[in-house]
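User: Please look over both lines:
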Amino acid sequence: MTTEGLKQILPEERIKTKLIDLVGYASDAGFYHLIPKAVVQPVNEEEIISLFQFSNNCKIPLVFRAGGTSLSGQSITDGILVDLGRFWNKILIENDGHTVRVQPGIIGAIVNVYLKKFNRKIGPDPSSINSAMMGGIISNNASGMCCGVKHNSYHTTQFIRFILPDGKSFSAENSSDYDRFNKECMFLAEELIDIRETILSNHELHEKIRGKYKTKNTVGYSLNAFLDYSEPLDIFSRLLVGGEGTLAFISEAVLQTIPDGRGGSRNGRVDGQGRFTFN
């Protein structure tokens, strides 16, 4: 693969093609091994969009990597590996610590350090939280020994800003994006509604999905989004939780936090339908 196209998008110092670098990124925490064609380090959404265009034009897969702590090989590729761990680490504490806005490359434990003075923390508490980054924590629907189901990524992620492979970006935080998503992504929006109607009309399927997500589940898309939401943008945003980076790029997320200390779990509940709500 020529790197000339990549040099039109990124400066050379943020493109890694030396064998020693490629081998260093060929594995994650799992036992899989794939040597990428190149490792790139974008710094903003514009560069991400350009990388999507390059990927589409050259028919080379694009894989996003945050902390690389997963055991299942989600963060390796023999295509182009997009390293988010260096430049995507911004954090903003909001609402007196009750919500936190993060980029995908900040480590979960660091987010908790920022939240500590508010006596708050993020809900997910995976064993790898000292190394795992927020992009992976959300994309794998991370939970943990303490958070169970009700404080996992799905139930505590409030908004996600994402970029589709065609370069369009949306966020459920922006009310105007709902109509824009339905218009600019009409086929996708209609397919999401069709799937939802199919599930709702099939009692057995409805109950199977609801029952599956009452227990800890980190094995794929959050299909309970089809039961919990009716707007296509809301459904798609929630499918990204657990989607392992396969549907879109998560550029930013807003998470609800939980109390940091004893009794924290009493600040919310799971209803009879398996949905978590904060008190």
About this structure: Confidence is low (pLDDT under 50) at residues 262-270, 272-279. The CA atoms of residues 146 and 186 lie 40 Å apart.
